[in-house]
TrEMBL record:
One of its GO terms (molecular function) is nucleotide binding. This is Dehydrogenase. Residues 133-255 form the GFO/IDH/MocA-like oxidoreductase domain. Pfam families: GFO_IDH_MocA (PF01408), GFO_IDH_MocA_C3 (PF22725).
């Protein structure tokens, strides 16, 4: 493909404005041609900032030949339907996490894109966070020995959105769940990308924000196929800024990644290495960590289309995260461990 990849963007809410917009402003190998949101004022304001066209009905974009690809930044409950419409119309599609609410739908989208020869993936920004890549490099180089335990903790301040029954976030029919589907999507993708598949899991959840319909704390834990143990904890009732933390424990050492820690990624080599050392290439950037990695995901997706290369985030791994989410809710409901 010559020239920039031409995008239609659907959904111009919070994370579009904070993160995706950066990619279209930089316009490095991509261009926003039409931006779309139910909210006309938002669509027009965003379009004006980018020199794009505004629209309020995504169906107008389906047959628009000026567009090669769409970036879908929508509430969870419409991911499947809107992504399918665009794939059927022959557009490349990148969608925000979770790929879908339903695992069968995610598998269907991956198969449909492959059948049509289209580039499709989930914009899982975890893949573009330098500290995680540095962690994976160190683990693969054997620096901490065999991995015995992987722990993630994602904490967010969602009191306001969960407390507003008009918003999709706290409604079961809007989000498909709370922390397990929303924050868990990141951690389950990360586990798969870095450490492979899960063998079995058990999950529990709790709810503090009374007016919402979804869990706002959860722990999903179990064993990976590699034999390592894992635990994925998420909360939406932390008064602090959104934070992502990863610990990888190995037979010879430990790596701790924490978005708000400076330096953000430390490696401890052995039981007497109390001071540890920073992992190379992991700059302290707590406030841009998420937004820059999301924008990088869009740029990487455009690069894949332009060069006919596989996406950095394998679509199958995005779909796998949805399978894990489904099994985790099954475990919450039954109170029992679930094999994968
Ligand atoms: N990668 C990350 O770290 C990250 C962070 C935050 C949100 N997200 C994901 O991004 C997605 C959006 O989240 P958000 O917080 O920006 O939500 P939001 O509610 O702030 O924005 C969604 C926007 O979509 C618009 N919309 C809904 N349906 C539409 C349709 N059919 N056509 C046109 N516009 C439509 C709404 O008007 C709204 O402006 C979700 O999947 C969420 O999980 C990802």
């Amino acid at each position: 493909m010559s020239g920039p990849v031409r995008f239609g963007v659907v959904g111009l809410g919070e994370i579009y404005q904070l993160a995706h917009h950066l990619a279209y402003q930089r316009a490095d190998g991509l261009a926003a041609v039409v931006v779309c949101d139910f909210d006309q004022a938002v669509a027009e304001r965003t379009a004006a900032a980018l020199g794009a066209e505004a629209c309020t009905d995504h169906r107008r974009l389906l047959e628009d030949d000026r567009i090669d690809a769409v970036d879908l930044v929508l509430p969870h409950n419409v991911h499947y339907e809107v992504a399918r419409e665009f794939l059927e119309a022959g557009k490349h599609v990148v969608i925000e996490k979770p790929m879908t609410v339903d695992a069968a739908h995610a598998a269907e989208l991956v198969a449909l894109a492959a059948e049509k020869g289209l580039t499709f993936t989930v914009n899982e920004n975890t893949r573009f966070i330098p500290a995680y890549q540095a962690t994976l490099d160190a683990v693969n180089a054997g620096e901490i020995g065999d991995v015995t335990l992987v722990r993630t903790l994602i904490s967010g301040n969602e009191f306001e959105r969960l407390g507003n029954p008009k918003l999709w976030k706290g409604r079961q029919d809007g989000s498909g769940g709370g922390t397990i589907i929303d924050a868990g999507a990141h951690s389950f993708y990360l586990l798969k990308w870095m450490f492979g598949e899960i063998a079995s899991l058990r999950a529990l959840s709790e709810q503090l924000v009374g007016v919402s319909q979804v869990e706002d704390w959860s722990v999903v834990c179990g064993r990976m196929r590699s034999g390592a143990l894992f635990s994925v904890e998420s909360t939406f009732t932390s008064g602090g800024p959104w934070n992502e933390r990863l610990e990888v424990h190995g037979t010879k050492g430990l790596i701790v990644v924490d978005q708000h820690q400076n330096p953000p990624a430390m490696i401890f080599r052995g039981k007497r290495d109390h001071a540890g050392s920073p992992l190379p290439g992991t700059a302290y950037a707590p406030n841009t960590w998420k937004y820059e990695s999301i924008a990088a995901g869009i740029e990487s997706f455009a690069h894949s289309i332009a060069n006919g290369e596989p996406t950095a985030v394998a679509p199958e791994d995005g779909a796998y995260a949805v399978r894990v989410i489904e099994r985790a809710y099954e475990s919450v409901a039954t109170g029992r461990p679930v094999p994968l």
